[in-house]
Amino acid sequence: MHGTKHHLQKDFFLYNASKARSKTYINMREISERFRLPPSEYVVIPSTYEPHQEGEFILRVFSEKRSLSEEVENMIEADRPSKKKKGKRPSAKAREGSEEEKQFRNIFRQIAGDDMEINAEELRNVLNNVVKKHKDLKTEGFELESCRSMIALMDTDGSGKINFDEFRHLWDKIKSWQKIFKRYDTDHSGTINSYEMRNAVKDAGFRLNNQLYDIITMRYADKNMNIDFDSFICCFVRLDAMFRAFHAFDKDGDGIIKLNVLEWLQLTMYA
């Protein structure tokens, strides 16, 4: 390991042999081992015999000189959309997009009605009708509660519904996240495991630390540590919305925000 500060991917362990390991790797209450290693940088990886089990471990290091250690953590950040350049004429592709935009708006109008807004139940019908068309995506669809959460997280004006622009943003996000989910659901089971979720989060443009990955697993995974499509999308919608909310409150860009109790409750209770 060469001073890296990010979560190690599977390839690292495929191409880097272990320097020392326990002689007996069996399912026992306690396993202990002593190693003598030359001065260098090492990755220490405690593990349980069965996957996805929690346990405690003790690591004791003896060194001749003072040695500093720290947990490998990632920066907590999200990719933000780049600003569009001004002063350029619309390209042919942009004009095609404009026509597509009209068609998309007409579909939305049929769903939303005269008020041009949709509620959670209407959102659920739209999303589940689209999901059914993807035969390779094994899922039972979105729960109503999931769609309520999506509405709350995308509802910028507090109306309890989402308008065309909010729906368009959500729709584009879901399409891109669906591709990521299918990429990691290699066995077409309709779920991905908690380890694959780390890579999926990274592919979606979010960089989190170990504590947040653990929180995601506790919140969105089932008892077998698998995450289905519904939970996957809900997790990403929340991540995207919470990062946007934070940046909106972070006026000076110093990475610190200050909320009063009303702002805090509005942000957490409605979401």
CATH superfamily: EF-hand
Strand content: 5-15%
**Helix amount:** 40-55%
Q: Please, how many domains? A: 1
Structural class: mainly alpha
Largest sheet properties: 2 strands, antiparallel
* CATH class type: Mainly Alpha
Low-confidence stretches: none
Order of helices and strands: HEHEHHEHEHEHEHH
CA radius of gyration is 23 Å
How far the N terminus sits from the C terminus, by CA atoms, comes to 40 Å
Any idea what the shape is?
A: elongated
Average predicted confidence as pLDDT: 81
CATH architecture: Orthogonal Bundle
Q: Looking across the biggest beta sheet, what order are the strands in?
A: 1-5
How many runs of DSSP E, i.e. beta strands?
6
Could you name the CATH topology?
A: Recoverin, domain 1
Alpha plus pi helix count:
9
Summarize this structure briefly:
Helix content is about 45%, strand content about 5%. The chain has about 270 residues and is mainly alpha-helical. The strands form 3 sheets. The protein has a two-stranded antiparallel ribbon with strand order 1-5. The protein has a two-stranded antiparallel ribbon with strand order 2-3.
Could you explain how this protein is built, in words?
By secondary structure, this protein is mainly α. The chain is 46% helix and 5% strand. The chain has nine helices and six strands; from the N terminus they run H-E-H-E-H-H-E-H-E-H-E-H-E-H-H. Strands 1-5 form a two-stranded antiparallel sheet. Strands 2-3 form a two-stranded antiparallel ribbon. It has a two-stranded antiparallel ribbon with strand order 4-6. Helix 4 runs parallel beside helix 8. The radius of gyration is 23 Å and the shape is elongated. The protein starts with 9 loop residues before the first helix and ends with a helix.
